[in-house]
Structure formats: C-alpha cells, structure tokens
Amino acid sequence: MRRLLVSAACLAALLPITLTATPADAGPAGRWTSVSGAAADLGIIMRPSAYRTADDVLHVVYVRKDGASSYSLWHSAVGDDGRVLRNNVVLSDWDTIAKDPRIVPTTTGLRIAFGGQRTTDRTDPYGGGQAFQIDSTDGGATWSLLPGTIGEASIGTGYGMGATDMPDGSTYVSGALNARVLYRNGSYDPEAPVASPSFDTATCCAYDTELARVPGTDQVWMSWMANGRTADSIGNFVRQISPTLGPILKAPQSSVNSDSGLANSPLSGSPPLVAKADGSVYLAYPVGYPTRRYVGIWKVGSSRVVRVPASEEARYADLSVDRAGRLWVAWVSRHTVRAARSNPGVTAFGPARGLGTLKVAGADSTWGVLIDGTGNRPNADVIATNGRQLLHQEVLAGLSLRATPTSWRGSGRQRVTFTVTDAGAALAGARVSAGGRNCTTSAAGTCSMRLSAPRPRVITATARKAGYTGDQVNLRVRR
C-alpha cells in the first residue's frame, strides 16, 4: 500500500486561493486563526511539521493539493507573539508530494526533507517518488532544491517518513514499506543505488516512522507502529539506529489481548517521539482496544506508562520538550483539541486544556495536531488542521487548585487551606481569591484564609498566576 496526500471527499467546495498570504494575527489563547492563508485542499491525512529557530520564529511546512496531479509544498513562519510573518510557496506543480514533509535545521539555515515526484518521466532527476531535500538560508523566504536524493522510494513515498538533523548539518531520514524499516544518513544515487540500511520486523506491516535525536549527540532513535499478529509484530516500537543499532523495544500496553487475538488502536500518523538533553526518550501512543482509553507517555526503557488526563479516544497526538525539560502533549479526541504539560520528571501531567473543535461548513473537522513548546515564552504553540487550513492557537499550562475543607456549617469564620500545584508539583506565588479575601501560596504551594458567610451560599475560590491558566473550586456554606 502506498499512502500519499489525498483530499477529503466530504469537504465543502474550496474557496479561491492564491500563492501568497497577507501576514495576520495568529491565534492567541482561546482563539484559532489561520497560518496557511485562504482555504485550500490540505486533505485529512497531511502531517505538517515545525521547527523553531534561534530568533523564536516557528517554521511550519505542509502540503496542499492544487489540482489533478498538482501538489505544492508550503512554509509558514509564526513569530513569538503568534503573528504570521510569512506564508510562502516552497515548490509548486509537482505530480506528487507525500503527506509528511519534515523540516529540520542545518548549519546554514533550514531544510525540508520530503518525498514525491516532480513528473512521471523516469528520466526526471526528481521523479521516481524518492526522498529529496530543499534548503533555505534566509529564514524560509527563498528555497533551493538540492540535487540528488536522500532516500529511495520506500523512504520518500512509503508508509510514513521521519527526519532529524545531525550535528554536522546532515539529515537522517527513515521510512517503512511492508515488513521493512529503512534509515539513511547521506545521499542516495538512483543510477547506482546502494540500499539504505534496514531491518525487518517480525511480520508485515510497519508504518509511520518518526526520528528523534538526543540533543548534543549523534544518538538517534526511531519509532514506528506495526499491525502484525504476534506480540513482536503488533503495537508501537522504538529502536536506537545511531551511532549503533540497538535492540527493538516494544512500548508497554501498546497491544492488548482481544477476542480475535492481539490488537491495538494506533494513532492516525506516526507515534510521537522526542528526546531530552539528559538522554531520556519518550513515546506517546493510545492505550486500549477497541476503545482508546487514554494517551500513554512511555519513557523508553522503563516499565511505567504515564496517563495523560482527558485523552480517551485520541486519534492524533504530538509531543514537544520545552526549555525546562517538561513535555507538552497535544491530542485530538472526537475532533476536540486538547493539550497538557508535564512536571520536569514527566511522572505526571497538569490538567488538560481544551482548545475547541475545528469545523468546516458547520461540521466537526479536526484531522491532525502539532505542538511546539520550545519558545522563550511560557506558552506552547498548537497547530491543527481542518482539511482546508492550518490553524494556530497559543496554550498556557493549567494550574490546579484544591481546598480543605470544601464545605462547612454555620455562619462563623472557617479557616480554609488552599493548595496550588503545577502537574502535581507545589506552585509558589499563585494568588488565591475567595469571598473578597486573598492569599499568596508559599514555596509549599499553600496559603490559607478565614472565610465566613452570613447565610448558606457557594463561595467560588480562584487561583491565578502569570504564565498559567487559572483554576477554581466551589466552597459550600451550609446551615
């Protein structure tokens, strides 16, 4: 099977489109706005990717279909304030461009690794469905298609391509076709082909590879999903592929026993994989079958799977490591986008932040999500697609407020202790307000105040701190 970008037949008629878009305000917290300009045919399986440069600009790349056998590759630059700085075409009028372009840094700028073919002419150096690369040295304003290829068709237009940068500025790519998983760092000559390094999974088939490199090293990890019938061929898997080839590791609870044998409920798209500077590697995937009970976060090599709150029936997900080493996770459940941030040890997540449901012609239409938390500001950037546009919204981590007690009797004063946490960790400096009074949490994340009410009532206590979305709890005064 060959999976390329296709359009959704159920989408409404497209609006007129142009090759450039006027910069516009992108989505602050609570509001979605377009980063891809006017509506176009992005399809429902397209996988955008993003990379943030040192100037805190988020560069997003994506594919759109412009007509029969006519695809284009696009780039959007989003500033640290959420403003779209640029939305420009990278390549146009290609016969095919695969659904999953990957943007990575080089020593001189930016690179997009992508699969496809410019024409169906086999003598065309950009034909054949291989993997290619196109570079920019001016922040994405202009792009130059590099000669040659970086991977055979099994990587470029197989079952999902992954890519990551290397310390020397080169690009590692990966792909899967049937039971074979391939990876390559370096050029590929279709006239004198030397097969990419590869390994076979136990049985067919492997899909949707993803690559992550441990910062500051040449250690590269790969993830993929497999849908075989045996324990070693169904579920989510990871393997170190550089500098040496490590053992294949299966993610705990990524397949379960069912009435018909082993089964799993994979994400639509690659299982997200990230690596932290301390060398730890994390994978996200759904747990449960036939119902996806939650998104699990697995620290590779451990036996524990951390549960992401409110993530049942997630079909799309993405991960990002922020500058403090916390993980941001975004997911789509029943077309609603949510996000949450972990504590530094990635042993727990804070409350899920609901970001809304994308729609087309009044119908729910959310077909993918991307998150980046690597910026200088405390928020993360979320990109989602409705099949016609890429939409952006900023999200802040949520804090949690607890009160003890939450109810009492009588009209006298009652001392109430409040505890504010960030993903389970005590949060100092949060301001708690209730019944016209205020207190500020200590290093232990607690503060207290004496509250009273002359008659039965509900007192709403709220907690706020800059850089967070607040929380509230209701206190009940009874007779």
What does the main sheet amount to? Answer: 5 strands, antiparallel
Strand content: over 45%
What is the CATH architecture descriptor of the largest domain? 7 Propeller
Tell me the number of strands. Answer: 44
Rg, Å, rounded: 24 Å
Task: Tell me roughly what share of residues is in helical segments.
Answer: under 10%
Given helix and strand content, the structural type is mainly beta
Shape: elongated
**CATH homologous superfamily caption of the largest domain:** YVTN repeat-like/Quinoprotein amine dehydrogenase
End-to-end CA span: 69 Å
Count the domains.
2
CATH topology (level 3) name of the largest domain? Methylamine Dehydrogenase, Chain H
List the total number of helices: 1
